[in-house]
Structure formats: C-alpha cells, structure tokens
C-alpha cells in the first residue's frame, strides 16, 4: 500500500484522462485536489476548494493558463494566486487570496502529485504503458486478498488465465474505495489490451465481493 | 431535541394543492412528520408519537413547526394583490444546508457562470454597489438597489435588460425576491424561496411565484424556474463544508457579498444555527 507520508508522490490520474484545457478531481492523503491542464499543456494541482464560498475548484473551467471557479468565476494562476474577481473587474485581488498548491509531475503517462516537495522523482515502470483507471468499492486489503499478493508502493503485477500480465497501482480513496491504475506491457496487441482490461474488471469484482462479505481485518 | 431558535420557526412541508386524506410522509429537522387533510378538509401535521404540530396554509404551501412559533407565517403583501398569477413551482431536493440554499438565492454574482445566457452572461459580471440593512422593526434582512444585466431575465423577457432586484429574508430558511417585471414597468415580480430543512445538510426547496404574466403557459414558467434551480443544485451539492460557516475566516466575502454577510450576521444574532458551522474546522 502507498505510504501516507506527505513527501511521497501519489499517482492520481493517467495523462490520457486529462486533456488540455480541462480540470478534474483527484485525491492525495491530505485530501481532495483540483487537477488541471492549461491551454499550453502545463499541469497544476491545488486544494479542491475556492476560498470565496467553498465551491470545488475541480468543477471549474480552464482558460489560457488559469483555472476559474464555476460559481463566481474567481480565477487562479498555476501558483495558486487569485488573479481576477469578475464581480469587481477593476480590482486587483490582494495577495492573501490564494489556494494551496501541490507539486505535480508527469512521467510515463501517469500524473503524480505530492503534498510536500519530494527530493526524488516519481517511479518509472520500464516496459509498461498505462491502459486505464477504475474505481473499486473495496479497500486495498480486499484487493490484495483477491489478487493473492500484497499491494506494494510500486503496485503489483497480476495475471489472469488467458490474459497478459498487468501492473496495478492501487490508491486508497474516500469511503473505503480504491482507485486502480492499470498498466500493460508496451508490446501488447489491441486484443491483448482488451483481455487485460477485462482481467482488471474481474479482479475489481472479486475484491468488491470480498469487501461486501465483511472485508478483511 | 434541537436546542436552536430555529425550532420555533415556520417551515414549508408540502403543497396544499397536492394534499389528500392519505397524506404525505416527510421529515422536518430530522424528525418524521405526516402532512394530511383531516375529515373537514383542513391541513393537519403530526410528528412523532402522533404529536399534533402547528399548521398554517399560506402562499400555496402548508407550513408547520416542531416548536411554538411566536408569530404567524411572515407576510407577503403581494400575495393579496389583484392581477397576479400564483405559481407553485414544486420541489427540488438538495443535499446541502438549508442556509446555504437561501444564501445562494441571495447571490447575483454567480448568474453569468451558473445561469449562463439566462440570468447573466460574460462580460457583464460586475456587481455594482447596492444597499443592505437589517430592518429592526420587521426583523428582516433587506437588500435594495441591486442591479444586474441579464440576457433573459424572465420567461416573459425578450432580449437583454438591466434588471433591478430587492431581496428580503423574513425567516431563517425563506427569502422573497422582487424583480423588475418586463411587461409591467413600475411593478415587481415576486419569486420566493421556501426551504424545508430535512436535516442540517439536506433540504427540500419549494420555489413559489406571484407574477404579472398572463401569457406564458404554466408549464413554461415552471420549467424556467426548475432549470434555474437545477443549475443551482450543481453548485450547492459541491460546496465544502456542507454547513454554512458563520464564523469569519473560513470564507472570503467581497462587496458583492454584502447580503450574505448581513444574512449570516442576522442568523448568528438570533441563534439560528441549524445547518450552520460555528467554529472553523
């Protein structure tokens, strides 16, 4: 299981799931974040809460190099500074109006976020490429039981009969759910990728059945 | 038992026009209640263990309370004005504090972003200064001289106009809005928001209107308001925290938020804290 230490990189999303000019919600051990990619392609992450009225910034919209809250259009830079308050167009927002930001890095098709500023780079999984993400209504321990192996920091490799080996990165979420990124080897054919996707789904169902029966203590 | 001044206030618990002898099971401030017609055709509300609760029928809705209201349901003089059309919009359930639902109703700065091309549109985002006061005699929050540019202010409006608004908060979970009436310059359309607190973080919102509009079909009027409130719901269910923070520090108001500031101050003054968060967490 991934460490709860704040100076650790967390794989919050796959690069392919966050297009240019869009925002999405994600989580780190410190709580919910708004993850967004500017028009020029730069990634940024901040606390998922506009300090004005508490609206989730992950519901906001990206214009140029800034993220705006969907409620009143308050606009924030990648560094978290409030740039604009549309209700008062001639006002320069004071420097005290800002959102807390997180460190972000993109490596191997995966977006990594850290609450602090880790010294090291996020891990690279040589030979693997991201396939998809899915969310299981089960905890990491139920997932470990279903897979018959312990989920480690770098995730774990699992193979279903008739499917290629897949690497899974489990990240604990709210309410006992687990976000799972699925990676396949770079040489997989289209049909092998489909088989790998189905294998990940079957593992998810197994973990959910174990969780529903009372989970694992 | 709820130890809060809000216990002794009136709340909407259903539409009178929809009521029958079989009645309606609903919830008021965490407790189950039943709203029904009695043998004489009068509204009757009962709480747990069959306890008979206060009842009033006003503005198309049945009102009740878990406590002992000290005053009748607040007045809306326009409800008795001839020529107005009264519209029961229905109900929208929202997973948020009832106080957050009212505060959102008092806010105009969100129009261009949440009700885009209906109640507001960029670049017309500026909120000009307006007047806010707590009227001591009526014990109500009032905002007046509120002006905003709107692409389609009402179902009866064609094209953009600068609309003038007045807002009243006569009860902790109710607000009455007066706005420029396109077909009748000099008169005000009335749109009220009656909020039923189901729990501190869950409410049923009952909008009600008293309009000068004999043209627009009823379905269109209801559809217009439902559209607006569903857009608001997408905001209200995603605010953190769910409860309304009454202590400063948790959120940052600006001049455009003076109505909200007065509303929060008025709530705190009266110990109206059901659905509020008192200490920043």
Automatic annotation (TrEMBL), chain B:
<keyword id="KW-0560">Oxidoreductase</keyword>
<dbReference type="GO" id="GO:0051213">
    <property type="term" value="F:dioxygenase activity"/>
</dbReference>
<dbReference type="InterPro" id="IPR044043">
    <property type="entry name" value="VanA_C_cat"/>
</dbReference>
<dbReference type="Pfam" id="PF19112">
    <property type="entry name" value="VanA_C"/>
</dbReference>
<dbReference type="InterPro" id="IPR050584">
    <property type="entry name" value="Cholesterol_7-desaturase"/>
</dbReference>
<keyword id="KW-0223">Dioxygenase</keyword>
<protein>
    <submittedName>
        <fullName>Aromatic ring-hydroxylating dioxygenase subunit alpha</fullName>
    </submittedName>
</protein>
<feature type="domain" description="Vanillate O-demethylase oxygenase-like C-terminal catalytic">
    <location>
        <begin position="94"/>
        <end position="269"/>
    </location>
</feature>
């Amino acid at each position: 299981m991934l460490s709860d230490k704040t100076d650790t990189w967390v794989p919050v999303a796959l690069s392919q799931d966050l297009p240019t000019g869009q925002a999405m919600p994600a989580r780190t051990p410190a709580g919910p974040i708004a993850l967004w990619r500017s028009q020029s392609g730069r990634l940024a992450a901040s606390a998922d809460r506009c300090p004005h009225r508490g609206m989730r910034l992950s519901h906001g919209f990206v214009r140029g190099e800034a993220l705006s809250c969907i409620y009143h259009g308050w606009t924030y830079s990648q560094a978290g500074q409030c740039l604009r308050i549309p209700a008062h167009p001639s006002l320069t927002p004071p420097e005290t109006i800002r959102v807390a930001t997180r460190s972000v890095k993109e490596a191997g098709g995966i977006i990594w976020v850290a609450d602090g500023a880790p010294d090291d780079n996020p891990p690279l999984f040589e030979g693997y490429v991201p396939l998809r993400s899915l969310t299981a209504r089960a905890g990491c321990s139920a997932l470990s039981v279903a897979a018959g192996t312990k989920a480690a920091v770098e995730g774990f490799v699992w193979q279903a009969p008739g499917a290629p080996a897949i690497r899974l990165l489990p990240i604990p979420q709210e309410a006992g759910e687990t976000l799972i990124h699925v990676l396949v080897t770079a040489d997989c054919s289209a049909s092998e990728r489909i088989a790998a996707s189905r294998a990940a789904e079957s593992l998810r169902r197994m973990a959910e059945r174990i969780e529903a029966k009372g989970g694992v203590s | 038992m709820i130890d809060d001044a809000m216990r002794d206030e009136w709340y909407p618990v259903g539409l009178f026009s929809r009521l029958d002898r079989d009645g309606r099971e609903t919830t008021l401030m965490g407790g189950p209640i039943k709203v029904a017609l009695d043998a004489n055709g009068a509204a009757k509300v009962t709480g747990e263990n069959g306890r008979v609760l206060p009842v009033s029928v006003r503005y198309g809705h049945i009102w009740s309370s878990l406590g002992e209201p000290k005053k009748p349901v607040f007045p809306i003089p326009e409800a008795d004005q001839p020529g107005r059309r009264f519209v029961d919009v229905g109900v929208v359930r929202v997973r948020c504090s009832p106080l957050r639902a009212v505060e959102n109703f008092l806010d105009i700065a969100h129009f261009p972003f949440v009700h885009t091309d209906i109640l507001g549109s960029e670049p017309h985002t500026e909120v000009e200064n307006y007047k806010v006061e707590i009227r001591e005699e009526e014990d109500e929050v009032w905002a007046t001289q509120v002006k905003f540019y709107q692409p389609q202010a009402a179902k009866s409006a064609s094209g953009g106009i600068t609309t003038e608004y007045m807002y009243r908060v006569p009860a902790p979970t109710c607000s009455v809005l007066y706005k420029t009436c396109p077909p009748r310059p000099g008169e005000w359309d009335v749109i009220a928001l009656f909020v039923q607190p189901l729990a501190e973080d869950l409410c049923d919102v009952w909008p009600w209107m008293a309009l000068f509009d004999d043209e627009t079909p009823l379905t269109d009027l209801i559809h217009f308001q439902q559209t607006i409130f569903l857009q608001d719901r997408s905001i209200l269910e995603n605010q953190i925290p769910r409860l309304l923070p009454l202590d400063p520090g948790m959120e940052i108001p600006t001049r455009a938020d003076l109505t909200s500031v007065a509303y929060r101050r008025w709530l705190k003054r009266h110990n109206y804290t059901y659905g509020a968060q008192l200490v920043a967490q």
